[in-house]
Design a protein that fits this description.
The protein is mainly β. Helices cover 0% and strands 52% of the residues. It contains no helices and 11 strands. The strands form 2 sheets. Strands 2, 4, 5, 6, 9, 10 and 11 form a 7-stranded mixed β-sheet that branches. Strands 1-3-8-7 form a 4-stranded antiparallel β-sheet, with no helix packed on it. A hairpin with a 4-residue loop joins strand 9 and strand 10. The chain is globular and about 45 Å long. 28% of the residues are buried.
C-alpha cells in the first residue's frame, strides 16, 4: 500500500526558509519520478517541482525557480523540498505526489501547511 507522509511545514516570515520532507513507503521508491504540488486557499493545486527517479533531472515552476530545490534520498525513501526566500504567495498546503503511469493513478499524502506571514 502506497503511503506518502509530508512534514516540515510551519509558520515563517518572508525571506525565511523551510525544508519539507516526504516519507514514502509501499512501493519501490527508486523506480519512480516524484513531484511536489501546492494548493493555496481558493486556488487550484499546482505542480511546483518534480525529480527523476534517479535524481538526474529536476524541473520547477517559474514561480519557485531559483528559490526551491527538490531532492531525494533513494536509500532512505525520502523526498525533500528546500524552500528559501519564501514569499507570502508561497502560503498553502504542500503535497508529495506519485503518479504511476502504468495504472494512471495518482497517490497523495495529506499535505503539510506552509504559512508565510509578515
Amino acid at each position: 500500500q502506497v503511503q506518502l507522509v509530508e512534514s516540515g511545514g510551519g509558520l515563517v516570515q518572508p525571506g525565511g526558509s523551510l525544508r519539507l520532507t516526504c516519507a514514502a513507503s509501499g512501493f519501490t521508491f527508486s523506480d519512480w519520478n516524484m513531484r511536489w504540488f501546492r494548493q493555496g486557499e481558493g486556488k487550484e493545486r499546482e505542480l511546483i517541482a518534480d525529480i527523476a527517479n534517479s535524481g538526474a533531472w529536476t524541473n520547477y515552476a517559474d514561480s519557485v525557480k531559483g528559490r526551491f530545490t527538490i531532492s531525494r534520498d533513494n536509500e532512505k525513501n525520502m523526498l525533500y523540498l528546500q524552500m528559501n526566500a519564501l514569499k507570502p504567495e508561497d502560503t498553502g498546503v504542500y503535497f508529495c505526489n506519485l503518479f504511476q503511469s502504468f495504472q494512471m493513478k495518482d497517490y497523495w499524502g495529506r499535505g503539510t501547511q506552509v504559512t508565510v506571514f509578515s
